[in-house]
Each structure stands twice: as C-alpha cells, then as structure tokens.
Amino acid sequence: MGVRFGLDIGVASVGWAVVNDNYEVEEAGANLFTSADANQNVERRSFRQIKRLHRRRRNRISDFKKLWHSMGLEIPATNINNVLGLRVKGLNNRLSEEEIFYVLRNELLHRGISYLDDAIDSSTSLQSDYAKGISENQKELDSGSFPCEIQVKRLEKHGRYHGNISIGQDDEKVILSNVFTTSAYKKEILAILEQQKKFHKFLTDSFCEKYIEIFLRKRKYYTGPGNAKSRTDYGKYTTKINKETGEYITEKNIFEKLIGKCSVYKNLERAAGATYTAQEFNLLNDLNNISVNGRKLSKEEKEAVINETKTSNSFNIRKILKKATGEDIETRKSIFKKLKIRYNEGMDRTTLTDFFEEVETTEEYNGYFCSIAEAISIVVLGSLCGLKNISQIHQWAKSERVSGFLKEKFGINHIPCYYWLLVLLKMVKTDTLNQCLMRWAAQFLPENRSQTTISLDGKTIRSTTGMKHMGSPLHIISAQICELGITLASETVPTKSNEIPAVQKLLEKMDIEGCLIVADALNCQQKTAEIIVKGKGDYLLDAKGNQPNLEREISEYVQDGTLRKCMDCKRKTEKNRDRIETRTAYSTGDVAWLYGKEKWKNLNCVGAIKTEFEKDGRKTEEWHYYISSRKLSAAELLHHARMEWAVETMHWLLDVHYEEDYCRIGNRTIQQNLNLLRKFSISLLKQYKTRISSKRALSKIMLDCLLESSKICEIFEN
To answer: Which of 290, 286, 323 is nearest to 308 (CA)?
Structure first.
C-alpha cells in the first residue's frame, strides 16, 4: 500500500496530511511558523557570508593544487603545523618543496582585506580600536617589516597574535590587531618566491604570475551572485533563455535590473540617487517644503540657492540659505534657546524632543525623516514602558496605536526602521548626551544641600564580557542623588581597574557644592577626598583593606570600650521577613589622635557602623569604618552610609527591568547611550512617584504606560 504526503503552506502556518491509496487520511496536523524577527536575518546573513568565504577559499586551494600538479609536483601527504615560522624562514633561507606548498597554501587561506588598501590614510583621525590597530600595523609595515615577521614578534612577546591584543604603553591603551592589507601579504609572497627561486627551478615567472592571479582573484561587484555554471536571476548570469539562439542570457552587469522604472513616467528608467538630475530634483523638492524663519522661500531665493549650490565647493545648507536670503537662519537649536526652555523649569511632553536638540553626533546628519532627538525620545518613551531592548521599542513604536500617539502628543511624525534606529543611536556622542542629562538632573538639587547624599559606584555590563570587538568589558561609573533616586552623571571606563581615576574625573565634572559624597572602599583615596573638598563638597569614605593603616587606627580606637563610650551612638533595628538587622553607629569629631590625618583633606570626623544580622536563631556581625570631612552625628552617619546603596539599587533596577546584563548589542557607543537613557527613564519614573507620593512599584507604572499610552504623558507633567 502506498501513501501520499500533502502540504498546505500558508503565511503563518503549514498544514500536512498523509493519505493512502483510497485517499483516506492516515495522519494530519499543522505547525505554526516561528514569528518573523529581524534579528534572525543578521544571524542568517552572517552564516551565509561564512559559507561564501569558505567556498571561495576552497576554490582558490583547488586551483592552486591544479597549478601545483601542472608543474609535475606531488601534493604533500603530511601536514605541517608551524607555517608561520616557515613564512619567516622563507624570506631568507631555503624551503623544501613540501614547505613551499604549505606556505603558499596558507597565504591563500589568509590573504588580508583588500579594501583597506584604499582606506588607509595616515592623516585621518582614528577613533575606534579597530582603526587604531590597523594604524599600528601600518606603521610597522612602513618600517619594512612583513606581516609574518610582525606576527612572530607578537607571538613571542604576548603569547598570541590572532584577534586583538590590548597592551599598556605610556599610560595609554594600545590595540594590536591581526588585520593586514592584501597588498602587504602580496609583498610578503613575492619576497618569499623571489628568495626560493634561487633554490627551485619549478618556481618560474609563469608559475608565480598564475599563483598571484589566484591570490588576488576577486569577484567584480557588478557581476552579482552566480556564474556561468550556477545561474541565478540575481546576478548577470541569468536563467532566462534567448528565444532566438536558445542560449542563456548573460547581461553586461546587474545595474539595469536594480534601477527600476520611474513612478511617473512608467517607460523611463529611474535616475540613480547619485546622478546630477536626481540630486537637483531632491534639492528642488526640499526647497518647496522648507521653511526659513517661519516663511516659505520665494522663487528668486530658490534660484539663488540652486546657483550657490552649483558653485560651492562644499554643501552646507545653512550657510547657503543665509547667503541666498541675507538672513540669519534659525536652527532647531537656536529656536530651542530662543523659547527659553530652561532645564530648571523641567520638561513636559511637548519639549521632550527639543530637550535633546543639543546632543551632538559623531558625523554630519541632517535629521531627514527622523532626527537624532526624535530617535532618543523614542528610546526614552519605550523604556518608560519597561521595554527591554531596541527591537521591542521599535516594534512598540511602529504599532498603529503608538505611532499615532507619538505623532499627536510628542510631534514624532516618522518611526525609523529597526536598523536605522540603531544607526542613529550609534551616531550620538555619548559625552554630549551625558552632559544634557546632567543638566536635567542638576535641577533637582535643593538650595540647602546639607542633607543631600551623592553615591558613586561602577557597574560592568556582563554581556560585553567576551565580546572580542569590544576589547574589554564595558564598565560605567554612575553618580546617584540618593534621596531622590535620580542619576546625576555617568562616566565610562575601559575596565574596572581604571575606576579610581574615572570617579575623580566625574567628580570634577559635577556640581557637588554642599553635598556629601559617599563611595565604597575602592574610592577611599586621598586625591579623591581632595577633589571633593575642592568642589566645595564633603566626603564620607569607607576605610577598608586598601587603606590598612587607616582601617587599623580607627578599628583600635572604636574597639576600645572606654573610648567608644565617649563617642556619639545611634542604633536602628529593621525587620525584613524572617531576618532582623540591627545597625549601630558611632561617631566622633575628635581626630587629633589619628596618625596621618593631615594626608586627608579637611578630615573632621571618624566613625564606625556595627551591623548585626539574626536569622533562624543564628547571629552574625560585621564592622565598617568611615572617615568624613563633615562632623557627623551618629544618626547622620547611619543615614548617609546607608545611602551608599542607592546606586547599587539603581544598578539592580537596570537588570531587573531592562535585563541590561543580557543586552547583546556589540557596539560600545550604543551600549553606553542605552545605559544613559535607561537610567534617565528610571529617574523620570522616580521623580513621578515622588511628585504624586506614590508607593506603586516601578514595574506596575511601566505596565500602565505600556497598556495605556496616555499614562506616559502624566510622567512629564510638571
């Protein structure tokens, strides 16, 4: 008995059935397709690119073996592992036929990046670690070294040469990259072949030319995919048949099929975007839509703009408009200042995008379709709804309900696609975004700051650990206004080991006058204390193992029962479920006895906190010792020391609500900007809770915003 298998393939599912010869259903079912996700395309394309790379390598090796056979030579039966050493040896010494085979084979597997030959420019400022690594390589190549010699030197010195190697040099991080140009490898091959010609007759000029041809072989960009044997309509080797000759049609290039037809004149081809006529059309279209200082341009002014554009060496529309109209042009930034929307007046929903207008970008961007400020605003609004990543935020913003809401309430007319949203976030200069948010947070500092605590601590984004192109895990220092739950400022450091100077740099940026700065034991540093006092603030620092003498001196004083009785004392007990925590603080302004006190700027107080825990009948205790430039009572010490945990709480909220430690975005700038905007969103929510005196959980407020968009507007009400 035979069976037949049938499929019914739909958009979202596939139905299937098995029938016998009598067409009776033996078995049937249906499967739902996995929902579409743009992120899956990245993985699929990456996998396809790897397959293509391996296929081309196999083709080069196959053609090389044919060339080797054509010279009457046998393919070696055994493998050689130390090919790098052979490459260096071949520059000056004789190699065997077998060794030459494996050297030439290895060069075909790793032939560098060809486009770097055109991209390298010593006058260009290098920003990324990738660019700096290539620059370091170019310096050594220019000095006369070959790639193999550079690689061997790094292997001997650092134990490896693959990937990126981060080293310290003159107090600066230097990245050593294993990326070399194709031309550098070509020079190395020619040098090896020239030397080996002295010992081997089969290395003729013809052999060398054919080998170099295989080495440099690269598909032309206008050919597209496929070839004469494996045809596809996506390339010039099509599957279409010429009716007259009966042969396959091979087009000149793939451009014509990509151009398409004009939407107005159906029979005419559409002009390419880089052509003169297309650019002129775009300019005329923009001039019809643009408003200058609240009015439309006249015909004469449009003609003046076009003539000026044709004769200008560079295109700066603001300067050209100014010259053509004779007026100073009000930019969105100047309008923003003119309206006098002050940071100390807060913000509302109508000024959210204007608030971010002063954020700068890493490259020139005209804000066409969606401005940088609008992109930042979309991320902030999505974060207020508790959305964990850019993919979720984009999907939310694109929905019909939300896109209409954003347009009506926030003036965001267009939502960029997922990838363009990522590009816009990548363009944002992190330091200018940080300064913008610092000015917003500073408005909440009260006039009398004696009871205001600012806590500093760092957090490593765990997902960036192990990302090779990151260089090192992303570690971000945050300063928190503890009593308000608002993030005041941030600073990014390469690694946690650089946290101390980063904290000091951050303190110099902030307005800390009158505030008490609390920090963990890592930042109990004399220079840190000096910077805080210089900024007219006070410090409360935890003395631990990194200041052993200081910790021992205070410990011996506090643990002396007689002396402790003379100290101010305050006790507080808290019960949390089945755990009882009792904290007892001791403080004194008598510091004359403290050895080395003059090293700590304005040291006026020492103290200690004894913490006792009781759970299930078991008791434990621990001591913490403190120094401060402010004379604190025991009650004040208890309060301010507790505030140190406010920044830890904020870090915890980032992981709970946004799963920051699982964010797999591989770009350092985007990760930093997301961290800033998430902290800003939490600060907005905390401010909202304070304003309405609410005890409602942040997660519930976020869910309210997600389910009912109008709730977002309430957060921005003053």
So the answer is: 323
Q: Is 423 left (phi over 0), alpha (psi -120 to 50) or beta?
A: alpha
At 220, list the tokens.
């032309």
Residue with tokens 């107090």: 171
CA distance 208 to 197: 10
Over the stretch 343-377, which tens digit does the pLDDT of each residue have?
334 455 556 787 888 888 888 777 767 889 999 99
628 DSSP β-pair partners: 540, 605
| Strand pairing category for 568-576 and 579-588 | antiparallel
**Distances, alpha carbon 230 to alpha carbons 235, 236, 254, in Å:** 10, 11, 16
Name the token pair of 682: 């939490």
What pLDDT, on a 0 to 100 scale, did the predictor assign at position 348?
Answer: 55
Q: Return the structure tokens found at 4.
A: 């037949």
User: Looking up tokens 């998430």, which residue turns up?
Assistant: 678
Listed in sequence order, the DSSP H helices in 443-595 are 499-509, 526-534, 548-559, 561-565
Side chain identity at residue 695, one-letter code: K
pLDDT digits (tens, 9 = 90+) for 55-81: 889 999 999 999 999 999 999 888 888
Q: Write the Ramachandran bin of 477: left for phi over 0, alpha for psi from -120 to 50, otherwise beta.
A: beta
CB burial class (10 A; 0-12, 13-18, 19+) of residue 515? buried
CA distance 154 to 179: 13
* CA–CA gap between residue 119 and residue 181 (Å, rounded): 10
* Whole-number CA gyration radius for the chain: 34
Residues making up the chain, counted from first to last? 718
Which residues, 6 or more positions from 436, have their beta carbon under 8 angstroms from its beta carbon?
Answer: 355, 356, 358, 359
Residue bearing tokens 């299930």: 616
Query: At how many degrees (to 10) do helices 182-196 and 97-109 cross?
Result: 170
Distance CA 531, CA 510 (A): 11
Give the max Cα distance, the chain. Answer: 112
Within 8 A by CB and 6+ apart from 523, the residues are: 456, 499, 500, 503, 541
Tokens of 131: 């660019």
Q: Is 183 exposed, middle or buried (0-12, 13-18, 19+ CB in 10 A)?
A: middle
**What whole-number distance in Å separates Cα of residue 186 and Cα of residue 33?**
49
Low-confidence ranges of the chain (pLDDT < 70): 1, 34-43, 115-129, 168-173, 271-274, 294, 313-315, 329-351, 368, 495-497, 718
- Candidates 172, 677, 151; CA nearest to 383 is 677
Coil, strand or helix at 220: coil
What is the distance of C-alpha 673 from the center of its chain? Answer: 7
Cα gap 643→453, rounded to integer Å: 7
The answer to whether 455 and 646 are in contact (CB under 8 A) is: yes
- The residues, any chain, with a CB within 8 Å of residue 114's CB and separated by 6 or more, are 181, 182, 218
Dihedral sign, Cα of residue 361, residue 366, residue 368, residue 374: positive
Task: Give dist(CA 450, CA 444) in Å, integer.
Answer: 14
Angle at 136 between CA 130 and CA 142, to 5 degrees: 135
User: How does DSSP assign 567-593, residue by residue?
Assistant: SEEEEEEEEETTEEEEEEEEEES--TT
